[in-house]
Specification:
about 0% strand; RNA transcription, translation and transport factor protein; about 240 residues; mainly alpha; RTRAF
Length: about 240
Amino acid sequence: MFRRKLSALDYHNPAGFNCRDETEFRNFIVWLEDQKIRHYKIEDRGNLRNIHSDDWPKSFEKYMKDVNCPFKIQERQETVDWLLGLAVRLEYGDNADKYKDSTPDGAKNTDNAAKNAEPLINLDVNNPDFKAGVMALANLLQIQRHDDYLVMLKAIRILVQERLTQDAIAKASQSKEGLPVALEKHILGFDTGDAVLNEAAQILRLLHIEELRELQTKINEAIVAVQAIIADPKTDHRLGKVGR
């Protein structure tokens, strides 16, 4: 339970430390005071360093009071944890410049995740292999060439996301069922002299009308988009200036 703090303090055996072993515990307290806490002057540490003395528990109890430890001597684990916390705080205070620019592991992982989330960030756009690969993909997907290969790569990514993902392919594969059309209700306007040809002409005419409707819809959307830009007070070209 003390491993992280012991490691932070460069203790020689952070994984194997056993505070229940009396000799190891006393040596640890001496090391902590000598190397990290340094509450006593060197000449005043004699009683604490005499770990084989029968009076050592009394010396340690006095030491706990002197450093204002809130636990009793019988509460060994709590005492060790508190003293380690004190030592870590003092260690940081002595080496503030060393630790102020350090990055926590969690933050490093976050930075790495952010970099991995944007795969284009580390690409060398001037690499001949990169250019050749982008050009090959653009030709395969019939994407218009651009002087900036990174722009072409982004266009490829957009196309793949919109048309080649599993959801897009599944949606495109779904059969579209339209409403039944009564051809006899639609007047052709001319007569070929052949009933089959008349019916085929009616079908072609209806398909052409549908295409015109789709085109008109796209035109309307474009008009609305342009009107939204022009109507923006910040970019109103009718005013001949930016802003109101």
